[in-house]
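call fold(seq) -> tokens
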Amino acid sequence: MLQSQTIQFLKELKENNNKPWFDANRKAYEAAKKNFGEIVETIIKGIEKFDIGIQEANLQVKDCTFRINRDVRFSKNKDPYKTNFGASFSKGGKKAHSAGYYLHIDPTECFLAGGIWMPEADDLKKIRTEIDYNFDEFKNILNAESFKNIFPNGLDREAFTVRPPKGYDETNPAIELIKLKSFTASSAIKAKEILTPNFPTLILDGFKAMQPYIEFLNRAVEG
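ret:
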């Protein structure tokens, strides 16, 4: 289970985001990293039971977890460290363009999510085509009770075109989904649930509900 010390480390890092403090507390970081890695390993094994793509990928913890160091080269925010732990579970690993599942652990905001965030132009075109050709299937996936229970707001609408993309008409029944430029769904995790033994099961229940959605997107991208 996720340890309270892991959350405490992230809280303190948020208040002391500098290299001297981090170096002085490296043992606490290593313990928190190890604890999060144990959660990630449990989730990998759980996803393998219902997602054949993840099973065949033989993912390791290092394939899924992100570095805590921030890339500050092009950012106005020069804080050297992220104040969260994150992991992406995709059959191509965390750097792949394929659809996958995501877990975000932060002292103030924890959530699970999945899909493809801001796909490149070619992949975006393929996803839109797949939705257009198989709208009934896609609609059924999003309206499934298991999906709606975890993601009651449906897909995130963080990026979309105001006008229909080229080749599509406003009267297309799928147009509001075709207008999306990012295909993700997310669900907040209640703070009281994070430090319970049931936490990995909670995450896996959410990911399992999302599996048909992930499969649809990967089918689209892979052509």
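The chain has eleven helices and four strands.
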